[in-house]
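Service request form, structural biology core

Requester: graduate student, group of Dr. S.
Request type: structure prediction, single chain
Budget code: on file
Notes: please return the result as structure tokens.

Sequence provided:
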Amino acid sequence: LTVGTEGKATAEALLFEQFALQVQSQPVAGFQRLRLADIKWTALAGEGAAALAIESVALSGLQAEAVLDEQGAPAAVAPFVSAAGDAPKPVEEATDDAMPLQWRLGGLQIAGENRVAFTDNSVSPAVKLTLAISSLTLGEIDSASAQTETPFAIDALVGDHGKLTLRGEAAPLLAAPAVSAKTSVEGLDITGFSSYVADAVGYRPRTGQLYLDSDLKLSDKQISSDNRLRINKLTVEQADQEKADEMAGLINLPLDTALDLIRDKNDDVSLDIPIAGNIDNPDFAIGSVVNKALGKALQGASLAYLKYAIQPWGAVWMVGEKLTEQAQRVSFDPVVFQPGSSELDAQAVDYLASLAGLLNDKPFLRLTLCPVTNAADSEELAGEAGREAGENQLAALGTERGQRVKTQLVERFQLAPERLFNCPSNHRPEQKKSVVLVSM
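Core staff response, request fulfilled:
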């Protein structure tokens, strides 16, 4: 350690070992070894300021406990809050007369075995997670060069087997911090986050391993993130009806149905979820933004699968009714009939073959078949009878068409009849074609 007479002090290194911090006998943080190398302190003559530079910080054997209480506040702060419930006094802002401090950190490295335990008691059941950091590096940060980006890297395990890799650059000292980062997650057991998932989408994961590749950019308060998500063997159960209905409104389908539609043959779910927005926008809330992006991605993926499954014979679209009626549904192209006829032509049979293939591929799906007659049917029936067609004739024609469609699917394509539901026939004179509407 060298102390100069002109307001300078240097130290080759400071070494701390076996450090532990406890609050009311409860461990909060500690480490085995902390080394600060090449430390320089300088009073800047005539400028009323000082400069502190540390060339490197090396830490190992980190042990930390982060606990949130039932209100979501850090439990370690509780002993310092008065019995009257007053919050700690805020730190006063620095005045213009305060001596500014310029500082520089050449780099930070955390290595060895390091563990951070996290418990959140504000949700039920409580979330308990561990982060085992094998490596964390941080490049140079200089308060005199806020625009310079600092590289960082993290390698860690989340829980027992989830692998986290993070690489990027950041300018954290800017008035509007900038970040560019790539994140990879492999084999993360999402059941450990079940309370958060249930609170967000109304469903609790029962099984599932998460794989994620994410590219994130934050600049001038504009955030954009491309996220490629895969969850292996995902199963869910409803936990909150209101939240589940909100998510169904975003997808126009119940979440479990949408997930079932996009599962592959291994029961894995894959999604691309882009996220973008201005973090200063009053309407920007990360939870809401993520939910909307997830809903849009699920709707798009579900539609894409359904369109592919019935090509080239039909189209598919989603129809969202009022959420309180819980009437979200998927509608397919109708089965078309010639006016006045209940016979299925070759094109209709080919179309039903595509629908049967879809139902055979997704055994949980059910179809509703709703006949609709039109003015052309009425004219055709009137021509045969020599008088105006009555309601009973039109209803009988529609009913027969619905039964023909169901019979074709059951007898020719071996679908279980309990998966097919017929509606009463409906007469709509303005309808352009004579059809049986098909919906899921």
